[in-house]
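haha ok so turns out i had the wrong file open the whole time. this is the CORRECT one, sorry everyone. sequence first:
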Amino acid sequence: MQANPYGDALQALEAAQDNVTLDVDGERLTLTRLDKLLWPADRDAKLPGYTRRDYLRYLLHVGAYMLPHVRDRPLTLIRMPEGITGRRFVHFHYEQRLPPFVETVMIYSEKNARAEEFLLCNNMATVLWLAHIGTLELHVWHSRTNTTPDAKGASTDFTSSATSLQRSILNYPDYIVFDLDPYIYSGKEAHGAQPEFNLAAFERGKAVAFRLKALLDSMKLEAFVKTSGKTGLHVLVPILRKVDYDAARAFAETIGRHLLREHPDDIAIDWNVSRRTGKVFMDYNMNVRVKTLSAPYSVRGLPGAPVSMPLTWDALKTAHPLDCTMGNVAELLAKRGDLWRDLLAGKQDLARKLG
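then structure:
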């Protein structure tokens, strides 16, 4: 088992009272209210509670595995400063003063006709700082600012105009996304609420994921799967950055429509709620530049602190979304490592397949 590079910071965190100053990769940051409860226990469901200290401990164990999957990708912050029972804020930008170690990128906004600042999570100090300001979920773009290794020479002009952004590498995703969201109710939801987690829905989502895999296999496209950390699944197809988001979305829509024809009682691609209720919603519109997914190993703001967890396809057969939580993912990773560490090393040439 490889030694944790943040062992000293972990020891300091455990020894601290309610505040601590940590040295992390040459950066110093002060973290406060360590015993603040962020994920209250759910005694009826037999789910434990977790504090800010628990969350920081988790990130010090898991951050080294998470960072390669978020580095150079603009962030969407899902902030719950008072914990999962408090208010939830979705931030695309952070208006307050940033610590010096937090990297950013300016990106042209077509809506506001100017470049705006987005945060990047490129180091462990930023991971911990984000946690400290109440970012309980970390969501990232499907494209990244770095042109290496498969897009050397591509444009990095993200700021001049909408046209320059569309020509830049940020308009070329690293993977096709298939977001499988079971729209199947447990019967316990409030009127008008989104479906809550229920095992029957998750099993239906798994069945659709395996049908999707079979179709992609027939096209000789390798796919990877992870839990969303909620009720759904994310299936990713890594691709060389030769096709833009429009082409990626069109491909995902074609695949979705094919599966819909084959399994009309199980799959929906329609945004109309009445037409997708009782089915697994396959959202091909996730393949858009501004859309984000929960990052691998990101905790979710739900009871029990489930984690968006990469799985093998064999493991998916018997998986339950609460198999992987803040309480056990660090141990799982220490034993097996990151299943997605080579995700971008074997990218596939979708442009060639599309002709």
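The longest strand covers residues 175-183.
again sry for the mixup
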